[in-house]
Amino acid sequence: MQLYCFIAKDEFTIFLYCIRESVGIEPSSLDSGHFIVTTRGKFLQLLPVDCRVSTTCRTMEEDKEAVSAHLNGVSTGKREDYLEWPEYFMAVAFLSAQRSKDPSSQVGACIVNQEKKIVGIGYNGMPNGCDDDLLPWCRSAEDHLDTKYPYVCHAEMNAIMNKNSADVKGCAIYVALFPCNECAKLIIQAGLKEVIYLSDKYHNTPGMIASRRLLDLAGIQYRQFVPKRTQIVIDFNSINKFGKLNNTTE
Ligand SMILES: [Zn+2]
């Protein structure tokens, strides 16, 4: 007899659930010698396990479907090309960037807490109440005051200031561009713990070198996000079509 279970790190995720529902065996009858399947969402590995099952298991619908499908030898037909969490958060940052009025650089940021909830979004723009028709957007001018730099708020600053939670301590920030040194200061002071960036195109500039120096000293992790797909298309018409959302492309 084989019993199957999804285990998510230390959680016996839906063990009792799938066994009761799909095989009809009560948890009390479990003992050693059964099998356990590791890795959430996919049956990758079968391992013998001592099945003293935690009674604090939690139900996760996705896992339940996958376990049932495996036990029944059928597919549930669940979509496979849905966005994974990191793609989703980075995409939110990129979507937010489309609000930017900066002609040369549109950057978005998305702050996510440990429960994978978005708690702040921002993009680069002029400060609240400052008419962005009255401020310059150029990158260079004879007078520094005629460039955007003294005025514009970066996406990271706006995401932190726009937070909808009491604070952003321990959160991760998804950003299109590696944060500059000014944003690194804000990230540190706000208590963020991780930076996930897509592009590092200014890597060798003094601002980025200073930024890494600060983040390193503060013990903030940073890592580059490598997307599996090059674009995500939002098709407003897809909702009117039957079945599959045509919102993703490889
Ligand atoms: Zn910045």
TrEMBL record:
Entry annotated with the keyword Zinc: yes
Domain of life: Eukaryota
GO CC, any one term: cytoplasm
EC number: 3.5.4.12
Database matches in InterPro entries: APOBEC/CMP_deaminase_Zn-bd, CMP_dCMP_dom, Cytidine_deaminase-like, dCMP_deaminase-rel, Deoxycytidylate_deaminase_dom
Cofactor (UniProt): Zn(2+)
GO biological process, one term: nucleotide biosynthetic process
Reaction(s) catalysed (UniProt annotation): 5-hydroxymethyl-dCMP + H2O + H(+) = 5-hydroxymethyl-dUMP + NH4(+); dCMP + H2O + H(+) = dUMP + NH4(+)
Domain annotation CMP/dCMP-type deaminase: ranges: 84-222
GO molecular function: dCMP deaminase activity; zinc ion binding
Keyword terms: Hydrolase, Metal-binding, Nucleotide biosynthesis, Zinc
Similarity field: Belongs to the cytidine and deoxycytidylate deaminase family.
Reported function: Catalyzes the deamination of dCMP to dUMP, providing the nucleoside monophosphate substrate for the thymidylate synthase/TYMS. Also, part of a nucleotide salvage pathway that eliminates epigenetically modified 5-hydroxymethyl-dCMP (hmdCMP) in a two-step process entailing deamination to cytotoxic 5-hydroxymethyl-dUMP (hmdUMP), followed by its hydrolysis into 5-hydroxymethyluracil (hmU) and 2-deoxy-D-ribose 5-phosphate (deoxyribosephosphate). Catalyzes the first step in that pathway, the deamination of 5-hydroxymethyl-dCMP (hmdCMP).
Protein name: Deoxycytidylate deaminase
Organism for this UniProt entry: Takifugu flavidus (sansaifugu)
